[in-house]
Amino acid sequence: MSTHFNNLALFTDLYELTMAACYFKYKMFTPATFSLFIRKYPPNRGYFVSAGLEDVLTFLENLKFSKEDLDYLENTKLFSSDFLHYLSNLHFTGDVFAIPEGRIFFKNEPILEITAPIIEAQLVEPLIINIINFQSSIATKAARCFYAAKGRKLVDFSLRRTHGIDAALKVARASYIAGFMGTSDVLAGRLYNIPTFGTMAHSFILSFDQEISAFRAFSEIFPDNTVLLIDTYDTISGAHKAVIVGKEIKERGLKLKGVRLDSGDTPELSKQVRKIFKESGLNDVSIFVSGGFDEYKISEVLEKGAEIDAFGVGTKMGVSADAPYTDIAYKLVKYDNRPVLKLSAGKETLVDEKQIYRFIENGKLKKDIITLRHESLEGGEPVLELIMEEGRRISPPESLDKIRKRFFEEFSKLDEELKRLKPKREFPIELSPGLRRLQEKVTYKILEKELGES
Known about the structure:
Blueprint: H1 14-25, E1 31-38, E2 48-49, H2 53-61, H3 67-75, H4 81-88, E3 95-98, E4 104-105, E5 112-117, H5 118-123, H6 125-149, E6 153-156, H7 165-177, E7 182-183, H8 186-192, H9 202-206, H10 211-221, E8 227-229, H11 235-251, E9 258-261, H12 266-279, E10 286-289, H13 295-303, E11 310-313, H14 315-318, E12 328-335, E13 338-339, E14 354-361, E15 364-372, E16 381-382, E17 385-389, E18 392-393, H15 400-411, H16 416-419, E19 429-431, H17 433-450
Parallel strand pairs: 6-7, 6-11, 8-9, 9-10, 10-11, 15-19
Antiparallel strand pairs: 1-5, 1-12, 2-4, 3-5, 3-17, 12-13, 14-15, 14-16, 17-18
């Protein structure tokens, strides 16, 4: 489990090491800049939410090859002893410009750019892609659920079906950044100080001789946090029994916190359950639902008038089911003070070190302009920040609540059309005149030098 990202130097593709061995042999230690970006939107996406930067920085801070790592590489018989000795002293010494977590970004924009000696910058590619691809995908999926819920509460219920232990933890964190109120994952609650929530399983109900006995037992042990699962046998019958227990709790000076529905016709059942509680004088009992929810199902049940206060969102959010990956890339854009780019069809890259300037009009995001790093555009806000310099963080890690607040502020500025579950337009992205000129200049040189065109 890579929660703290220690001893992960070998979490890299073999070709990163073989390239590094060549760089070492030919004494190529000059600084290189690599840019991380997503080429295109997955289906029905119009934006991304930045997440994962904290883990990237922790990984870079701890980059080191252990004796066991080096012994393993020696046993492959691929690498010289001189190169392995070089790796034994390697650590990250570069700079990182990045979009802070919680901010919105768009396709083809640099999410982060790393400048470091080329071996260092090359070796870290796979883990950086792995971290940012997954966590930004989940944060984006969670933001879409947050939008669809229209102010109703959301809880991460995904840990059982995420793709691994570390993934479950990162889903809890990323979804909390993007508006979820908490998680069912207790370890994530401890590690990240995220609120935890839970009710009961059907097995708990089945273990008692009667449903109401299970309700009474739970309310006796957790009188201040009683949420009853009422659909084990029949939802309406369960609701009536919950009313009985709710009134018993009320007589003790407390109140029934809520009930959970996990099956059936959610809109219709939620309306009936709400009516039962209102007619019984228990007007403040929350209705919590779970069972296959994501942004699409949330939107669907609310459009049908469902009486729901909170959603447990699990599998489909935890694996970003409709968009489980992004077309994310980490490409060399500058080496030895020489701007470089790819011309591969459909995979062209933007040259050199860059910045993004964001323009806001009437409180809403209007457009982004990608510029060269040294350029400055009046009226625009720079999005990329210097996060790490010479291998050291510029400032201490941010609190999750600060990142979460940043998301709320930024998301409120995103145009309603782009928030929709099926947006019909894309956010406008432009290239600055300076970047465009350099792009054309370098392209011309490549065509002339490599292809003999003029």
